[in-house]
Design goal:
GO biological process, one term: methylation
Number of strands: 9
Mean pLDDT: 96
Structural class: alpha/beta
Radius of gyration: 16 Å
Pfam families: Methyltransf_11
Bound molecules: S-adenosylmethionine
Order of helices and strands: HHEHEHEEHEHEEHEE
GO molecular function, one term: S-adenosylmethionine-dependent methyltransferase activity
Organism: Gillisia mitskevichiae
Number of helices: 7
Low-confidence stretches: none
Strand content: 25-35%
CATH superfamily: Vaccinia Virus protein VP39
Protein name: Methyltransferase family protein
CATH topology: Rossmann fold
Helix content: 25-40%
Largest sheet: 7 strands, mixed
Distance between the termini: 40 Å
Oligomer: single chain
């Protein structure tokens, strides 16, 4: 099943099912971005809008992109605001956004589904204005090495999604190549227990060119 179709069928249960990765990422986003206010935010892979409403309180306007019609439908059912535009958009295709127009891009739990990181960093660098920030939070590659991946229960089977492993240096090297500087890297653990493998890794990059 394609990634898009998988998310279409996951959409109805995504918010309700037990999901430590989803919940920990919500905490991470709030901890990392909590103290800032932005003019224009671009949210890549907004899904059912887990972070969208919260981000809306932190900006003047927000564009939320996702290719899954059903995930977007869920988000739109929950969120109504003049400040937000939801666009059905494959992130690997042309985003049709003005260059240098955003001051924050967020990308939560999306890049494991995108093979070519360079494509995303290149487009992000184009639409961010100088000194704009790029927040990324993903399943930690250590988790990926040990076999973790996005999966959900369809009611009949456990459906595993197509994923790609990105090493920490893949993120940083690709960011540097596209004119970003790393300003924050954190690892996040279940119950904050640092004896475990970290569940998530987060980055904040700043556009410096
Ligand atoms: C695990 S969900 C995360 C949703 C939300 N960011 C969150 O943290 O709950 C991944 C989302 O990325 C979207 N996605 C994956 N690959 C994509 C692509 N190539 N273009 C657009 N959206 C994509 C999926 O449709 C899905 O909504």
């Amino acid at each position: 099943m394609s990634i898009e179709k998988s998310y279409n069928s996951w959409a109805s249960s995504y918010d309700e099912m037990h999901n430590k990765t989803r919940d920990l990422e919500a905490t991470v986003a709030r901890e990392i971005l909590g103290e800032w206010y932005y003019t224009n935010i671009l949210e890549l892979g907004c899904g059912t809008g887990k972070n969208t409403q919260w981000l809306l309180d932190k900006c003047d306007s927000l564009i939320a992109l996702d290719f899954s019609e059903e995930m977007l439908t869920k988000a739109k059912q929950k969120i109504s605001s003049k400040k937000v535009v939801f666009n059905q958009q494959d992130l690997t295709k042309d985003w049709k956004l003005a260059p240098n127009s955003m001051d924050l891009i967020t990308c939560s739990l999306v890049l494991e589904h995108i093979q070519d990181l360079n494509l995303i960093f290149k487009k992000s660098s184009e639409v961010l204005h100088k000194a704009g920030q790029f927040y990324i939070c993903e399943l930690h590659p250590f988790k990926q090495y040990s076999g973790s991946k996005a999966r959900f229960n369809t009611g009949k089977v456990i459906q595993e999604l197509e994923v790609y492993t990105h090493h920490i240096s893949d993120y940083t090297d690709t960011a540097f190549k596209n004119g970003f500087k790393l300003i924050q890297l954190n690892e996040w653990f279940d119950e904050d227990n640092r004896d475990n493998i970290p569940r998530l890794v987060s980055f904040v990059f700043k556009k410096v060119i």
